Amino acid sequence: IDPDSGNTLYILTHKRILKFLKLFISEVPKPEFMAQTLEELQIGTYSNIAVVGTSTPIYVALGIFVQHRVSALPVVDDSGRVVDIYSKFDVINLAAEKTYNNLDVTVTRALQHRSHYFEGVLKCYKHETLETIINR
């Protein structure tokens, strides 16, 4: 924020920070924590994971986002297997495309509107190091 005018000068997001780190990580000394596992670093959620089913309506998913204070929900099939992920970014896409007029639509159907840039669900294991995950 500009101290004189009060105008916004820059916006820095988690995504931009992570992209910067990915691009320049090889040019800076490697911190010791990069060799630690996700579990040791306490990164991730390992219990009481909020999920939605493939037939869960969007309005229910929105309630789960708020109730559990999460930014993404694994989408699971009838056998509990993760088949996709529904994130707050997907909700923003619904608004941007003005396809939010029917919140009774299922998560699966809503995900059909997702941008083609989605790279899919990546698996990380708690025994993997942060360096392994970043280099993936």
TrEMBL record:
InterPro entries (alphabetical): AMPK_gamma/SDS23_families, CBS_dom, CBS_dom_sf
**Keyword Thylakoid belongs to the record:** no
Which molecular function GO terms apply here? AMP binding; ATP binding; kinase activity; protein kinase binding; protein kinase regulator activity
What's a single GO BP term from this record?
Answer: fatty acid biosynthetic process
Provide GO CC annotations from the record: cytoplasm; nucleotide-activated protein kinase complex; nucleus
Against PROSITE patterns, the record matches this protein to: CBS
- Superkingdom classification of source: Eukaryota
- Keyword Lipid biosynthesis in record: yes
What keywords tag this UniProt record? Answer: ATP-binding, CBS domain, Fatty acid biosynthesis, Fatty acid metabolism, Glycoprotein, Kinase, Lipid biosynthesis, Lipid metabolism, Nucleotide-binding, Phosphoprotein, Repeat, Transferase
- Could you tell me which residue ranges the CBS domain spans? 43-105
Its family remark reads: Belongs to the 5'-AMP-activated protein kinase gamma subunit family.
Q: How does it assemble?
A: AMPK is a heterotrimer of an alpha catalytic subunit (PRKAA1 or PRKAA2), a beta (PRKAB1 or PRKAB2) and a gamma non-catalytic subunits (PRKAG1, PRKAG2 or PRKAG3). Interacts with FNIP1 and FNIP2.
Q: What is this protein called?
A: 5'-AMP-activated protein kinase subunit gamma-1
**Origin species:** Pachycephala philippinensis
